[in-house]
Amino acid sequence: MFLTKAPANFDATATHSIGAQIERDLSAYGFPTTYTGNDVFTFVPNGSPVTVVRDLVNEAGCNNCHDPISAHGSPGPRTKMAFCELCHTPQTTNPYSLNMVDMKVFIHKIHMGSSLPSVKACGDYFVVHRGNKNDYSAIVFPQDIRNCTTCHAAGPTQADA
User: Fold this and answer.
1) CA distance 137 to 123
2) Which of 32-36, 42-46, 83-87, 129-133: highest mean pLDDT?
3) Which pLDDT value is given to residue 79?
4) How far apart are CA 49 and CA 135, in angstroms?
5) Is 159 a residue whose pLDDT tops 70?
6) Which residues have a Cβ under 8 Å from the Cβ of 40 and sit 6 or more positions away?
7) Tell me, what's the pLDDT at 53?
């Protein structure tokens, strides 16, 4: 149940997305793992069909190298790129490193780690999440970073985005 109503002038014809994550730790009951799940529900508030979906990189593309993709832990509970993009937006900056964590900037910098000019100049590229420093300075993308279709293969126009 949501307690806050949308403002009267919000665009009810625009596509909206909402994400949810569940996590259950059964180790106290003798099970060896934590079960997690996350997903995104996309809808148009006025009831129209969803025709606009942001799918520049989906987890199938990520899973070509990272199988399964996961973040925010090891293994992490976040496994859907659409879910990640709900928080990793243009106004998001990591308060400890002051590095932007907007998905389009962050994901490219992670994969370019060792090639970043700041890293080549004896710096590092990292973010801190829940007290853990995640340093991406040694990451080497195993092919030419300009091969966009490796990750951007969601659709015929997506790779050019």
Assistant:
1) 8
2) 42-46
3) 81
4) 42
5) no
6) 17, 18, 19, 80, 82, 83, 86
7) 82
Structure tokens at 109: 């910098």
Q: Which amino acid is at 33?
A: T
- Chain length of the chain: 161
Q: Which two tokens stand for residue 125?
A: 């590229």
pLDDT interval class at 23 (50, 70, 90): confident
Q: CB of 14 within 8 A of CB of 44?
A: yes
Cα separation of the two ends of the chain = 36
Give which of 79, 84, 68, 66 is closest to 150, Cα–Cα.
66
Question: What is the predicted pLDDT for the residue at 41?
Answer: 92
Omega of the bond leading into 68 within 30 degrees of 0 (cis): yes
CA 133 – CA 113 distance, rounded (Å): 15
Q: Residue 91 has what DSSP assignment? A: T
State pTM to two decimals.
0.78
